[in-house]
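Can you give me the bound-state structure? Components:
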Amino acid sequence: MDTPQQVGDLLQEYAERGVFRGFSRQRETRQQGEFRVRWHRDQVFQWGYDRRRRSLRVACVLPAVPAGSRMYRDFRQWLRARQDPTLPAHRRYDPARLTLRAYNRGGDVALTVRVLDDDLDHGVRRAVSLVNEIYLDFINRGPYFDWLLETFDLDPDRPS
Amino acid sequence: MSQYEETPQPDPSKRAAPSAEELDSNGSARRGFLRKSVLGVGGAVAAGTAGQAFGAETCDVADLKLPSIRIPADFTDSLAESAAPGKFEGRGMSGAEVFANLCLKEELAGLFCCPGNYTVINALAAAGIPTYGGRTEGSMCAMADGFSRATGEVVATSGTEGPGFTNMIMNIAAANAARTPLLVLASNMTIAGEDREAFIQTVYQQPTTVGMRKYGKRLIAPDRVHEYGAYAFRQLKSGVPGPVHLDFPAEVARARFRDPAELKDFYDRSQYRSDSRSYPAPADMKKAAEMIHKAQRPLIVAGQGVFQRQGWDALHRVAEKNEIAVATSGPTRGAFPDEHRLCVMAAPDAMMSADLVVFVGQYCMPSPGEYYFNPEIRAIRVHPEQEDLGRNWPLDLGIVSDEALFLEALADALKQQKRAAWVDEIAAAKKTFQDSIDEVYQLGLKYSQQTNTLHPAVIARETQRFIDSGTDDRAAIVSAFGGWTSGIFAGRYMRANRPAQMIVPAYQYGAIGPDMAMMMGVCAAVQRGVGPQKGYEGAPTICLTSDAGVAYSLMELDTANKYRLPTITIVYNNNAWGVWPNAARSARSMHMYLFQENLRYDLLARGLGAEGDYVTTPEAFNAALALAYRRARDDKQSTLINCQAIKEFTSPRDYPPGISLPPEPGVGAAAH
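Here's the bound-state model for the whole set.
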C-alpha cells in the first residue's frame, strides 16, 4: 500500500500519540494527499504526498532563510550529513531508501523526502523524524539564536 | 546603626587590578585592607564552639588609619550560646515556641532570615535550629532554597510582615518551580488590627503566594498553632515537595501556654503524618520490565524525585544491570555521575536515538519537542501522585510509585542485559559533544586574546578544569551556573559526579539573581555536612554567575563572611544584561540594557569583608581561582572573581557561535 490515505493514517498516529499538537487531513485523492500538522514552534506545517513520485513534501519547513544565506548553505550541508554512512542505522536516512532534497522559494525552505523502496511506512516515519531533528538539532546546533527569536517573534526569556 | 556601617571606606579606584603574578605570589600581601579571623565562624556554627578573637583593630589605607572590618564579638558569642527550647513550666511557652519545638522535632534543617517576625525567629534560634541572619529577605530565601536543593531537607526562611515578606517573593516562586520543601514564615500584624491599616506594614500575605506554594495558612487561632505546624510539615514531607507559607499574627506568636491541654491536637508527628510511600503495582512493574527488555536503546530520565527520595543507589543498580542510559533533570544535579559510561547528559546525539524513556520523579514535566528525543520514543512515567500522570507528555505506561521504591523494584525485576551497540553509541555521542565544546573553547581563547577580556566558554571550561585538577578533592566542590550568557555557556562545560554536586539556580523559573545567595545556602549545607554533603565539610562552593545576576545577591557576602561560608563567586562581567541584543532592533532602547562598563564588583566584595579579584586574561583567571580556593580552604574566606568581558560575545555575528540553548535533558538544562 502506498496511498495518500496510508500517509494520512501514519501522520494521524503521531497526533494521537501527542507528538503533534494538532493535525487535520485536508485533501486525499488516489494520487495526492494534503495534511496540516501543528508542531514545532507552534507552526502549522503543510505536508503533501504525491503517490506518482512517491514523494513527501513539507512546503515550508524553515521560514525566512534566504537562498544565498550561510544558514541555507549550512542546512543543505546538515541535510547531506543525515545520510552519512558513519551514522547508526536508526539515525541514518539511508540514501538507498530515501532521497532528501531542500528547495528555497523566496526564503521558504521546502523539504522533500522521496521514498525509493516499497516501504512507505518507513519513509513517512523518517520524514517526521527529519523535521523533528531540524528543529531540535540543526537550529540549536548552529548560530541561529537570533534568527529563532526574529523569525518566530519569541521572547528571549522564553525561546522554546 | 553600628560603627562599621559608618566606617569610611578607602577609594576603590586606587586599587589596581591584580596581575597573574601578583595573584600567584602571595595573596595575603594584598589583604591589608581587611583582617580576618583564622578560624571560621562556620566551624563555630557546626561545633557550637565559642567565637574567635579577631585581627588588627585598624588598617592603613592611603595614609588613613581606618577601623578594620571585623565580626563583632556579640555575633560569635551569640553563636556559642546553648539551645534553650521553650517549656510549659514557669512562664510557659509562647505560640512561637510551641511552633519552634515542633520544627525541632521535625528536624527542620535551618532558618535563613532577616530580622522581623521576631518572636518566631528568636524561638527557632533558641530551640537549637541552625539559624543564619542576613541582609535581604529575598537573598536569605534563596539561601534557604539553596540549602534544601543541596540536601533535600526542609529549610525555613523568614521575614517581617509586609516589606520583608514581599522582598522574598521572587525566590519563593523560584523555590516553587524547583519543588523545594521550603517553609516560608512571616509575621503579620495582629488579628485585632485586621483591616484597620494600623501603624505600618499591613498586607494580606496569603493571596500573594497563591500560585507559588503548595500550602499556605494565616494562623488565627492561637490554640491551633501546633495543629497548623503539623499541617505544614505534612505538606512539606509528603508527596511532591513545595513551599509552605505560614503567617503569624502577634496573637498567635505571643500567646502563652502553660499546659499541653491548652493546645488543640497537640500530639506527635507519628500521628499527624505518615512516612508510608506508594509501591508500584506488580502488573505495572511487569509491563515496565517488558517494555525495557524489548527496547534497544532505553533511557531513564531521573528527575528531582530521585534526588528527593535518595534513589541514586537504586538508579545506579538499574542502569548497570540492564545497560540503560541515564539523564538527570531538576534543580539538583549529580544523582547519576556525568562521567559514567551510561550517562547521556553530555551526549545529546545518543538521547535522540533512545527508543524508550522512563521518567522517574520528573516533577516539572516538559512537552514533546522540548526534550531532545525522536518522535518514535515510547514513554513510561513514574510519579508519586496519580493525577500528574499524562500531564504534558503522553504516556505508554503510567506508574504511581515512590521513586526510590520503584527503582529498587525495577532493579529486582530486570534481567541482566548487555547492550553493546547502545553503550558504544553513547561513547561516540559523548566524544562528538566534547569535540564540539572543545572547538568553542578554542574559539573563546582566540576571542579572549583578541579582546583582552574573558570569553564565557573559557571561564566555564577553566572553572571545571580547576575543580577537576586544582582542588584537593574534586568531588567536594559543589558548583552552580547562572546568568544568561554565562549560564548558557557554563552549563555545557560544568559537571556533576555525585549527588547534589551541582545546583541549577535558574531551574524552571529562570530568575537571574538568586544564584550567588543560593550557593551561600549550599555552602552552609556543605560546611555542616548535611545529607549528601556529608564528608565534604570545609569545602568551598563555586558559583559562576553574571554581572546582572550578582546585583541581587552581592550584599550577602557580608553574611557569607560573618558565618565563614567559603564561597567562590565568578562574575561574568559583560557590562550589560545578557539579553541586550533585544535592543538591537530598537535604538532608543539600548540604554535600558547597559550598565557602566568595567564595574568593579571585586572591590564591592572587599568592602563587604570578602576578597575580590579583577581579571581579564585566562592566565589571571586561573591564578585567581587557585588563590580563591586557597583562601576558602585555609581561611574560610569568600572571594568574588570579576571576569571582564564584552557584551558582544553573545552575538553570533560578531563572535560565532554566540549563544544557543543547550539540548534538554542534559548538561546545561535549566527549563525542565
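A couple of observations. Confidence is low (pLDDT under 50) at residues 1-55 of chain B. Residues 420-451 of chain B form the longest helix (32 residues).
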